[in-house]
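agent> fetching stored inputs for the S-adenosylmethionine docking request
agent> found them:
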Amino acid sequence: MSSTALGNHILVEFMNCDPHVMNDVAAIERDMVGAARKAEATVINSTFHHFSPYGVSGVVVIQESHLAIHTWPEYGYAAVDVFTCGDMNAWIAFDHLKECFGAKSYSAIEMKRGSVNLLTRNDFDITSAREKAAEWRNPDFYTRNVWFTDKDEDQALSLRFTGDVFFDVQSPFQRVRILESTKYGKMLALDDMVMTTIKDEFHYHEMIAHPSLFTLQNAKNVLVIGGGDGGTVREVLRHSNIEKVTMVEIDGEVIKACKEHLPEIAAAFDDPRLELIVDDGIAFVKSAADAVYDLLIVDGSDPVGPAEGLFSVEFYQNCYRTLKADGILVAQGESPKFNEKAFAELNQTLQSIFGQDNAPVGLFFVPTYPTGMWSFQYGLKGAADPRKVSNTEAIKSFVAEKGLRYYNEDIHFSTFALPNFVKQLIQQ
Ligand code: SAM
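agent> prediction call returned; pasting tokens
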């Protein structure tokens, strides 16, 4: 560093970069930390955020100051600044990032910061400062803050994750990723939505299966649409009365990712009672025969991309048709607090097909879904009604025998107790 200035600042415009890299928070965090290391800086901390629908912001704090970035993937553009003091050659970091980002063009300006001629030096106890600095030389003494954010235009849920990416494939339908969150363990993300995590998946999977199966008591033939992580069929196949489960998942990459990296959830894929079909569930139900299923579970993602049609009237009319006379439909029902419109419209659809009093809503909590409040929506074709179940002893012993962690005989009923604002939303 020159004797006349305290710091050196390079401001860089990286242009015509790979838009996918510009939108990959884990890759950008890795490359920014890599750039600092390549320039022999001492990394203290890194904090990176991925914004929905796209864009990444982050900073790597180094003992020699910082590297910061904000990306516009839609323009293939990244604004980067490398601020250094001490002997670090910031241009080494620049070269590393230019390569990592695949920048086909760039501009950069370098400016000296902190002209000592204009500054007055204060007396400073350098010894204790040096002792503190020594602590930062420990290579492991660096905290990473890489955040995954699932959000809509008004609210978000952010999970800190380790930055490690175990699976990342752009399938014909969606981006399939397995990441590791520091609080909830490994997780499946589709596009930028949290689908399931190791630490709270049981909330969702126990509640999607057991209330209906204890209502039907002797279900034999079950159809699951979606559910590629395998958690729903795992819970359904805990019931010994089940003879056949047909699971129709549109995206084989989801099944592959979960079999490899979430084996606790994808635990029942080898069960002989399971027929696993990789196909579009909407088309499958359309061509399905009448009155064949006791239980039909729609374990689909949010109403975007491949799952949009899983919220249509036609799809649920076909579901109704393919259910036996006393059959039950259960659908991932969205949240009355995150996407009220989709939630309310789905219930209107079910009421219009199954009858106004035959479309109950069950609420439950999933900490890693935005707002944490989520729902399953039911369609009751016949008299079988989860709100009128009496075999609570059977539930109790099953819960104890299987070691269930969310569902029990009280939750079975309380899930249908709705707050007034939800009753108003669905006008039942
Ligand atoms: N628990 C999650 C939620 O609440 O959003 C859903 C989990 S599950 C992983 C959702 C699955 O539905 C995904 O694997 C997705 O590929 C699948 N899916 C989406 N649209 C589909 C369709 N049309 N037919 C079959 N599966 C579909």
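agent> quick read of the result: DSSP finds 13 helices and 18 strands in the chain.
agent> awaiting further instructions
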